[in-house]
Amino acid sequence: MSPLALNPQAGPGPGVSTVATLRTAGDPPAERGRVRRLVPETGLQAAIWALVTVCVLAPVVPLVYASVQSQPLYTPGRVFTLAAYRQLFTDPAFRTAALNTLEFAGLTTAGSLILGGGFAVLCSRTDVPGRRVYSRLFIAPILLPPLGLILGWNALYGPGGYAHDYVPLNLTSVPGMAVLGTAVAVPVVFLICQAALAGTDSALENAARSVGASPLRVLGRVTVPMLRPALLNSGLLVFTLAFESLGIPLVLGSPEGHDLLASYLYNTWSNGFTPDPPVVSAGATVMLAAACLLLLLRTRLLGAQARFVSSGGRGATAAVGVRLGTVPRWVLGALFGLYFAATTFAPIVALALTSLVTELTPLIAPWHLFTLGNWQTIGQGTFAHSILNTVEIAVVGAVLTTVVVALATAVAHRSGFRLRRSLPFIMVFPRAIPGIIIGIGFFWTFLLVNPPGSALRNSIWGIMLALSVRSLTIAYFVMSAAFATVGESLDHAARSGGASWWTAVTRIILPILRPALFVSFILLFISILNDYDPALFLVTPGHEIMGVSMLDALQKGTTGPVAALAVVQVAITLVAIAAGGRLFAARIRGNRHA
Question: Do residues 301 and 191 both lie within one domain?
C-alpha cells in the first residue's frame, strides 16, 4: 500500500490529501467503482480514443474520396477517375497560385525568424529597457482577430490608406502580403525561442563576456547557436501556417489576381460553373498531402534537437547574459516600440476609425465623415445574428473541447490503453491541416453520413464541430504540459486504494489541473471566436458567423460595417483575455492559500 494513501502529510501537493479523502471519507466502494463496472476500463478509454479519432479523420476520408470521383458526391452516376487531378495540374492558375504560395511562405518564414528570434534574444538575454512589457505586447497579433488585423493594415498601408504615401509597401503583391504575414507570424517564433532561452543557462554568455567578447559576438557565437532547434521548430511551423493562409490573399491578393493555394480553392469553389467541382477536392487533397509531409519533416528534424541544448541548474528567465551600452539599449527599446506601434497598435486604431466614418481617406478629415451608421447596421439583421451565433459556438465549443481533450490526454499519458501512443499525433494533426480543407471535408462528411449529417449541416453545431476540431490542438498542448507536472504516484496511490482509472482521473488528476483546464477554455474560446476558414463551406442562411459574414460583406465592397464587426470581435477577444487573466491569477492565489 502506498505511504501517500496511509498518511496525507507524507508528501507535498494538493493531490495527496485528495487521495486520502477519496479512500477515507469518499464514496463507498460501490459508488467508486460504478463507472468501472458499467463500462470496462479499456472500453471507456477506447470510446474516448474513437471519439477523437473519428472527429479528426472525419473530414479527411470523404475529401480524398470526392477527389477521385467524376461528379460531386451528391450526383448520381459517379465513376472513379483521376480527371480532377489532371485538370488541376494543367491549370495555369493553380501553378501560379502554388508558386505564389511558396514565395509567400518562404518570405514570411525568413522574416519572422529574423524578427521573432531577434526579439526573443534581446528580451531574454539583454538589458533592453521595457523588455518585460514588450514580451507581452509582441504576442498580441496571434490573440487578435486575424481579419480585424488585416482590415486595419489595409486601412493604414493599403491603396488609399493614411500611411500609403509614406510607406513604400504594396500590400496586394505577394511580397507585400508576406510583410503582413511576417507581422502575424513573429509572435510564434518569439514564444518558441523565448521558451527555449528560458530553459538554457546564461552561464555561457557570462563566460564569454568575462574573457572580453563583445555583446554582438556573444549573441552571434553563443546565444543564437543554442536556438537552432527552436528556430527550426518555429520555422517549419510558420511555413506550414503561411502555406495554408486564406484571409490575407482573399482580402488583399485575390482582387489583384494574386491568389495563393487556399484562396484559389475558395474562388474555384465559389465561381465554378458547376457547384462543388471535384477539382477543388483534388486541390485540397494535394494541400493536405503537403501539410502532412511538412508535419512529418518537422517531427523528424526535431528528433535530435537535444544535441544543441545547453542546460544548467536553473532556467535563465530573468537573467541578463549580455549588457548593452547606454545608447544601443535605448535605441533598441525605441525600435521595439516603433515596431509594435506600426504593426499592431496603429492598424487597430485605423480599424476603429474606419468603423466610425463613411469612408476613411487622407483627403478629408475623419470628423467630417463621422457616422454611427456602421454600428447601427451591425446591430440588426445578419450581422447581429452572426455575433450571437459566434459567441454561442465559441462558449459551447470551448467547454466541450476542453473536456474531451482533457480525457483524451489522460488516455494518452496516464493509461495502459494499447492505442494510446497514437493520440498525441492525432490531436496535433488538425493544426497541420489547412482550415479550408477541414471545411470542405466536413461538408462532404455531413452530406454522406446522414443522420446526423443533415441536422449538423443545417445548424450552428456543424460549424462548431469543424471549428472545435480545428482548435483542439491548442488545448492538447496546454493539457499535455500540465499532465507532465503531476506525478504518477497520485494515480498509483488511487489505484492501489481500489479506484478505477475514471475515478483517479476525474476525482484526483483533473481537479489538480483546474488552472490548466481554465487556460484551455480561454484559449479555445478565443481561437474558435476568431476562426472562420473551416466554416466557409458550412454556413447556411440563418447560421452565419462573424468571420464569414465579414468576408461576404468585403466581397460586396462593404467596409464600414465590416470594420465595426471586426472591432466587436477585437473587443470580445480583449475582454476574454483580461477576464481570463484575472480569474486565472485568482485561482492560482487561491490554490496557494488552500
Answer: yes
The rounded distance, in Å, linking the Cα atoms of 417 and 46 is 7
Contact between residue 407 and residue 48 where contact means Cβ atoms under 8 Å apart: yes
Residue 516 domain-assigned (yes or no): yes
Please answer whether residues 443 and 305 qualify as being in contact, where contact means their C-beta atoms are separated by less than 8 angstroms: no
* Rounded Cα–Cα distance for residues 122 and 116 (Å): 10
**Residue 354: inside a domain:** no
* Residue 517, domain extent: 1-68+372-594
Which H or E run contains 354? helix 346-354
* CA–CA gap between residue 12 and residue 48 (Å, rounded): 31
Q: What percent of the chain has pLDDT over 90?
A: 37
Q: Is residue 357 part of a domain?
A: no
Burial class (CB in 10 A: 0-12, 13-18, 19+), 211: exposed
Q: How far is 229 from 262, CA to CA, in rounded Å?
A: 29
Residue 99 burial (CB count, 10 A): 13
We report the CATH number of the domain holding residue 306 as: 1.10.3720.10
Quickly tell me which residue has 502555406 as its cell. Answer: 243
**How many domains are contained in the chain?**
2
Q: Determine whether 81 is exposed, middle or buried from the number of CB atoms within 10 Å of its CB (0-12, 13-18, 19+).
A: middle
**Do 421 and 330 have their domain in common?**
no
* Rounded distance between C-alpha atoms, residue 531 and residue 594, angstroms: 38
Q: 110 and 148 share a domain? A: yes
**Residue listed under C-alpha cell 479519432:** 53
Q: Give CA–CA dist 254/277, Å, rounded.
A: 20
- Tell me the C-alpha to C-alpha distance, in Å, between residue 337 and each of 5, 67, 340: 54, 49, 5
Cα–Cα distance for residue pair 262/574, rounded to 1 Å: 28
Of 296, 323, 343, the domain-final residue: 343
Residues 427 and 517 in one domain: yes
- List, for residues 212-256, the tens digit of each pLDDT value: 555 566 665 666 677 777 888 888 889 988 998 999 999 999 988
Scan for cell 494543367, then name that residue: 90
Based on the fold, state whether residues 8 and 104 are members of the same structural domain: no
CA 14 to mean position of chain CA atoms: 31
* Cα distance between residue 509 and residue 363, in whole Å: 61
User: Rounded to the nearest 5°, which phi and psi values hold at 410?
Assistant: -65, -40
Q: Which residue in the block uniquely carries the three cell numbers 465590416?
A: 562
pLDDT in tens, 532-546: 999 998 998 889 999
User: Helices (H), strands (E): how many in the chain?
Assistant: 33, 0
Residues 205 and 256 in one domain: yes
How many C-beta atoms lie closer than 10 Å to residue 270's C-beta? 12
The separation between CA 493 and the C-alpha centre of its own chain, rounded to angstroms, equals: 36
Same structural domain, 394 and 251: no
* 48 and 150 both lie in a single domain: no
Residue where a domain terminates, one of 328, 343, 358: 343
For residue 428, being part of any structural domain is answered with yes
Q: Give the C-alpha separation, 387 to 268, whole Å.
A: 28
Q: Where residue 594 falls among pLDDT bands split at 50, 70, 90?
A: low
Give the whole-angstrom CA distance, residue 154 versus residue 475. 32
Instruction: Give tens-digit pLDDT for 427-467.
Output: 988 887 888 889 989 998 998 888 888 889 889 999 999 99
